[in-house]
């Protein structure tokens, strides 16, 4: 008899909730797309301060990947920082650049991050 399949039984290794893993994936996808859009913008218009922007995009992509690793490790700080960065960058795009580009991606990534954050905070509180 498999005791982990009984109703009310909780295994130590319960892999049914994938929200933390999906939040990490969302962070990685967001990092890759942000770096790719910077590269495509450079290819479209190669004149300008692009070396500085390329270095900045590399740092941002690296920071997002580091935060994604922190999310996988169930770090509350990493998931909150990732949420602040995604939401902050989208607010900057809306109000400073007056553009709605990236809104759909930001909404999707924010949803995954919120679900993951909820689960991370539940695990740290013992629930």
Task: Give the structure's gist in a few sentences.
This protein has 127 residues and is an all-alpha fold. 72% of the residues lie in helices and 0% in strands. The protein has one domain.
Protein described:
With 127 residues, the protein is mostly helical. It has one domain. The chain has 4 helices and no strands. It has helices at residues 19-44, 50-72, 76-95, 103-124. α3 runs antiparallel to α4 (103-124). It is elongated and about 55 Å long.
The termini sit apart by: 27 Å
Q: Overall pLDDT, averaged?
A: 83
Using the alpha-carbon principal axes, give the shape. elongated
| Count, helices | 4
Key descriptive features of the protein:
single chain, 4 helices, 0% strand
Topology:
Elements: H1 19-44, H2 50-72, H3 76-95, H4 103-124
Helix pairs in contact: 1-2, 1-4, 2-3, 3-4
């Amino acid at each position: 008899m498999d005791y982990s399949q009984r109703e009310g039984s909780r295994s130590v290794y319960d892999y049914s909730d994938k929200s933390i893993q999906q939040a990490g994936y969302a962070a990685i996808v967001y990092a890759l797309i942000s770096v790719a859009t910077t590269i495509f913008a450079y290819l479209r218009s190669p004149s300008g301060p692009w070396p500085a922007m390329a270095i900045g995009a590399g740092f941002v992509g690296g920071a997002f990947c580091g935060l994604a690793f922190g999310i996988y490790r169930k770090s509350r700080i990493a998931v909150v920082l990732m949420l602040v960065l995604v939401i902050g960058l989208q607010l900057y795009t809306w109000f400073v650049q007056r553009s709605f580009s990236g809104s759909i991606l930001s909404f999707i990534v924010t949803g995954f991050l919120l679900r993951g954050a909820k689960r991370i905070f539940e695990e740290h509180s013992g629930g």
